[in-house]
């Protein structure tokens, strides 16, 4: 999609958000979801996509148009749970999420070329967490720009507890076959003061199934916004236990993001590295 088309789309969304704000001020008690139609041109054909005011407001607050104008984004990433670092390295990803490159602290590489996942390290090839790492953390990073991806399903907006306040939320789920774990869901929280993504509650069914995952839902709280080339990013994600009644509770993990910068990479950067093998899907 060209930059001009994206700008036209985002201008439409801005007008939609302004209209929604005006309607909401007159009718605050309504929880019925409102859907708007956004026409985008893909391969010279018009594709009508339903975009809710809830997700449109988040996309505008996170400057989706500016983000997608760039080729790729790179950042230093570290995440720990229970005091143990489970991933540390440099992440580079196309802004549309189509390709991802990770260089771990030990120098080993994990790559998603848009079709397959490759790893240079023998342990990473056998580790079921390898695919989890390359898809989960880049998705959390770029979530404000992935809310209306193909295959996303949104439930009606409601107010739910987030800390000491109630924030607007909506549940995101996926059509069958989307990603490695299409049965996962996210409860997305929007900051009512500035429309930025405040955090998400989620389940991780990877390797254990939905029933087990729903016994231990968690939340990621997005903190410490910084602006890079006009685009805001959270540089600290705290992970918590979560319930639908209490929102996020005890902290169980922390991710830090540093040295964020937009970059340009050749497609070969995401190709299968020399000596790398294919990382199989779960259960294969």
Account of the 3D structure:
31% of the residues are buried. Strand 3 and strand 4 (84-94) form a beta hairpin. The longest helix has 24 residues, at 3-26. Helices cover 21% and strands 42% of the residues. It has a single domain, classed as Lipoprotein localisation LolA/LolB/LppX (outer membrane lipoprotein receptor (LolB), chain A, Clam), CATH 2.50.20.10. The chain has helices spanning 3-26, 53-61, 64-69, 122-126, 129-141, 210-213; strands at residues 36-42, 45-51, 72-81, 84-94, 100-104, 109-112, 117-119, 152-154, 158-162, 165-174, 186-190, 197-202, 218-228, 231-243, 247-263, 277-278. Mean pLDDT is 84; it is low at 1-48. It is α+β, with helices and mostly antiparallel strands. It is globular. Helix 1 crosses helix 2 (53-61). The strands form 2 sheets. Strands 3, 4, 5, 6, 7, 8, 9, 10, 11, 12, 13, 14, 15 and 16 form a 14-stranded antiparallel β-sheet that branches. The protein has a two-stranded antiparallel sheet with strand order 1-2. The chain has 6 helices and 16 strands.
């Amino acid at each position: 999609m060209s930059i001009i088309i994206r700008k036209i789309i985002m201008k439409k969304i801005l007008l939609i958000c302004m209209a929604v704000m005006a309607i909401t001020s007159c009718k605050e008690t309504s929880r019925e979801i409102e859907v708007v139609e956004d026409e985008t041109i893909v391969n010279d054909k018009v594709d009508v996509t339903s975009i809710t005011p809830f997700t449109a407001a988040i996309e505008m607050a996170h400057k989706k148009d500016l983000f997608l104008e760039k080729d790729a984004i790179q950042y230093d990433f570290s995440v720990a749970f229970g005091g143990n670092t489970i991933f540390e390295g440099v992440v580079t990803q196309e802004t549309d999420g189509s390709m991802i490159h990770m260089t771990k602290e030990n120098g080993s590489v994990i790559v998603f070329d848009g079709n397959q996942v490759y790893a240079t390290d023998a342990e990473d090839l056998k580790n079921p967490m390898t695919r989890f790492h390359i898809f989960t953390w880049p998705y959390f990073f770029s979530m404000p720009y992935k809310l209306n991806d193909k295959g996303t399903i949104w439930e009606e907006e409601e107010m739910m507890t987030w800390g000491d306040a109630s924030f607007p939320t909506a549940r995101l789920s996926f059509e069958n076959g989307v990603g490695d774990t299409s049965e996962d869901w996210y409860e997305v929280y929007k900051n009512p003061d500035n429309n930025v993504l405040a955090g998400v509650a989620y389940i991780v069914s990877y390797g254990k199934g939905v029933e087990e995952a729903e016994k231990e839902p968690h939340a990621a709280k997005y903190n410490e916004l910084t602006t890079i080339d006009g685009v805001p990013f959270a540089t600290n994600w705290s992970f918590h236990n979560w319930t639908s009644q209490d929102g996020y509770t005890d902290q169980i993990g922390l991710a830090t993001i540093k040295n964020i910068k937009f970059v340009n990479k050749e497609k070969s950067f995401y190709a299968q590295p020399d000596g790398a093998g294919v990382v199989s899907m779960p259960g294969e």
